[in-house]
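Postdoc handover notes: sequence design on the structure in folder B. Input tokens:
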């Protein structure tokens, strides 16, 4: 019995350590029963930000930490390209919503005709990232922002997530 408890504690510590160093991808598609147990023990969801949404055509700026990307940022560390709309903007925005609905670790919190806010939760440690899409119809663009709630660095997870969504969007 003691060996089993020691092993469980060791396994939990190893998984915690691995996830802190980014070896467990945030956008992993499946959760095993062991991961669900660990996620229930550790949850690093943080508090939902109060500055989300669109103000005068702008998403919130990224904080000074490197764990955020935004298509409206002007500094290279945070800047990422917006999504270009080739055809009907409303259909393109509906496509973004469909992609998010079919992503296992994403939960759409707000879905408006020109704004979507989703939370992405890492399967093992329960870290939450806030992801926003804004349909900038006059410019034929979909502006995007993805930010980690906790920590200093995300080891590029937010950028990779947006580029993965872009790849699916461009299909």
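Designed sequence:
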């Amino acid at each position: 019995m003691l060996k089993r408890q020691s092993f469980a504690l060791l396994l939990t510590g190893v998984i915690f350590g691995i996830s802190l160093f980014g070896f467990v991808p945030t956008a992993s598609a499946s959760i095993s029963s062991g991961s669900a147990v660990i996620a229930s023990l550790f949850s690093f969801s943080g508090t939902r930000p109060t500055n989300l949404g669109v103000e005068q055509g702008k998403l919130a700026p990224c904080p000074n930490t490197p764990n955020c990307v935004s298509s409206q940022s002007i500094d290279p560390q945070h800047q990422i390209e917006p999504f270009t709309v080739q055809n009907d903007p409303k259909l393109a925005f509906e496509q973004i919503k469909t992609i998010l609905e079919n992503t296992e670790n994403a939960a759409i919190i707000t879905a408006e005709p020109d704004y979507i806010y989703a939370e992405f939760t890492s399967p093992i440690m329960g870290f939450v990232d806030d992801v926003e899409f804004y349909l900038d119809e006059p410019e034929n663009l979909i502006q995007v922002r993805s930010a980690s709630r906790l920590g200093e660095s995300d080891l590029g997870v937010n950028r990779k997530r947006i580029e993965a969504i872009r790849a699916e969007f461009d299909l």
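Context for whoever picks this up: The helical segments are 2-20, 33-41, 89-101, 157-169. Don't rerun without checking with the PI first.
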